[in-house]
Amino acid sequence: MPQTNATDAIEQKLLGILAAQDLGDITQELCDFSLEEQNATAEAQGIQPSASADYVPVLGKSVTYIVACVLFNERDEVLMMQEAKQSCAGKWYLPAGRMEKGETICEAAVREVYEETGLNVDATTLLAIEVAGGSWFRFVLTGRVTGGILKTPAQADNESLQAKWVSRLSELPLRANDILNLIDIGRAYNERTTAPQPLMYHPEILPTKYSHHKNYLRVVAVIRKRATNSLNVLVSEKNVHHFPTVEVHPQRSLHSTLRKFMIELFGAELPQHRPHGILSVEHCPSPMPYTSDGICLNVLVVFRPPLEEVALIGKCTWHELGRPLEEKLARILSSKYSTIPLNVIR
């Protein structure tokens, strides 16, 4: 693919994604596989669509965003709160809860920690993203405690009964064990620079404040060209050059949405590939009256076969990366910890 102003812009956009900056893309116009198109494909196969083409993610109505915080003190104790809700009263859990209308992801995390533990925090990075179906997302963050007073039983309220720093989770009755893996991820990240063999972790990445009308996966797909051993990135040529983008189907798992999109681009005989993880997240609530709460997940996808063995049927092409950007991306690919883990629950 010859170097042109358009393809040079692709490299600038990739640098923007790696720096957790918004691209300024109007995803509605650059979406390569919308819900309407996904429904048309399903109907052509004799399958009744399971989601309306005009689905819009709206908090409290059609989409759920959860925030959870994994925080450690200088003694490597994790911050836990005791539940007040009748269904799980007395059980322990991470500070967590539903995002509210008008909130950013970080604002929701800071609020939940304060309400449930009494502590003030500054969020520093995303640790993981969990997805169930295409309309339930949990954003797991960590950060630094900057003040506040740890909630005691005397300050119990509807948010929590108390909070404390815990060294041995086995001594507490937990609301659910799903937080154990999140705590392990947080502890490993917290200890990344002091481990006997330091691993390459992703930098501190917080969600970029940028509004999207719907939910999207923006795919950064990379592949090696055997002849030159060069790293290439997939570029959509629909309308203007951009990274291939698919609207998230609210009734399917994220893996299913991604796979069906890949079939649109590569055909039924899909070359072997895998999601490496999330490079960055874009979200900002729409202005009053909060008509949508869309997000865009920038996901890194790695292809195993060489470029010469992979055929394209969609309106896409491969762009060979310049050496500095190739080296930067190659370092990311060399470590499984260099992107934010994406855990697809179902």
UniProtKB/TrEMBL annotation:
SUPFAM superfamilies: Nudix. Its cofactor is Mn(2+); Mg(2+). InterPro entries: Nudix_hydrolase (IPR020476), NUDIX_hydrolase-like_dom_sf (IPR015797), NUDIX_hydrolase_CS (IPR020084), NUDIX_hydrolase_dom (IPR000086), NUDT18_NUDIX (IPR042970). It comes from the Eukaryota. Keywords: Hydrolase, Magnesium, Manganese, Metal-binding. GO terms for molecular function: 8-oxo-dGDP phosphatase activity; 8-oxo-GDP phosphatase activity; metal ion binding. It holds the Pfam family NUDIX. Residues 62-187 form the Nudix hydrolase domain. Belongs to the Nudix hydrolase family. This is Nucleoside diphosphate-linked moiety X motif 18. It comes from Ceratitis capitata (Mediterranean fruit fly).
